[in-house]
């Protein structure tokens, strides 16, 4: 499943054929149908696995305390994370295609996103559950949108500015405006 997830994130769902995934996994094309009924089933399962990994990494960061969570945000909003097309967030890598995917794939993506919302809401500065959820949705949407847009634009300086601006604003919201601005070189999970 990890191989399929990486190939889908790198090439896109529609541009990736079953034979390409099977070859990357070291299997024959014919073996595919012993494991899956369709490409859509593979996409749904690969999406679910990738979302589980993303939620797991976020859970480790949230459970590690405020400093670990802020480091996770900084790493997610880094140029290294932006440039890692094989790993990382499936919502960033395949977002527009996931919006047009079948119900099972959209359910896998939605379930993962809902899990992220719950995790981030737990560490929110807001005590009211609705405000904490809204804060989590804003944080996640900002992170996912920033990395997505930083991949789309063709100006490297603008791409870096998108990441830096979003990182700075989110960290200021979490810690106040006195946060030290640093450029992160690490890779987020």
What does this structure look like?
This protein has 189 residues and is mainly α. The chain has a domain at 48-175: Tetracycline Repressor, domain 2. It contains ten helices and no strands. It has helices at residues 2-11, 18-24, 32-35, 39-63, 66-76, 79-83, 90-99, 103-122, 129-152, 156-175.
Briefly say what this structure is.
The protein is 72% helix and 0% strand. By secondary structure, it is mostly helical. It has a domain at 48-175: Tetracycline Repressor, domain 2.
From the coordinates shown, what is the CATH architecture of the domain at 48-175? Orthogonal Bundle
| CATH hierarchy, class of the domain at 48-175 | Mainly Alpha
Helix content: over 70%
Question: What's the story with the biggest beta sheet?
Answer: none
Structural class: mainly alpha
Say which CATH homologous superfamily of the domain at 48-175 is assigned. Tetracycline Repressor, domain 2
Using only CA atoms, what is the Rg? 17 Å
Tell me the distance between the termini: 17 Å
Unreliable parts: 184-189
| Beta-strand proportion | under 5%
């Amino acid at each position: 499943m990890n191989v399929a997830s990486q190939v889908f994130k790198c090439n896109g769902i529609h541009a990736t054929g079953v034979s390409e995934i099977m070859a990357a996994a070291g299997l024959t094309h014919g073996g595919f149908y012993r494991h899956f009924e369709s490409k859509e089933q593979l996409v749904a399962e690969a999406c679910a696995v990738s979302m589980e990994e993303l939620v797991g990494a976020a859970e480790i960061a949230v459970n590690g305390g405020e400093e670990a969570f802020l480091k996770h945000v900084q790493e997610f909003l880094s140029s290294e994370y932006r440039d890692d097309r094989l790993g990382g967030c499936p919502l960033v890598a395949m977002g527009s295609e996931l919006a047009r995917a079948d119900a099972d794939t959209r359910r896998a993506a939605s379930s993962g996103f809902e899990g992220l919302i719950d995790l981030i809401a737990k560490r929110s500065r807001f005590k009211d559950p609705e405000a904490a959820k809204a804060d989590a949705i804003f944080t996640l949407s900002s992170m996912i949108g920033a990395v997505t847009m930083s991949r789309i634009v063709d100006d490297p300086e603008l791409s870096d500015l998108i990441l830096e601006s979003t990182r700075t604003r989110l960290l200021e919201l979490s810690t106040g405006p006195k946060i030290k601005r640093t450029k992160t070189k690490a890779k987020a999970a």
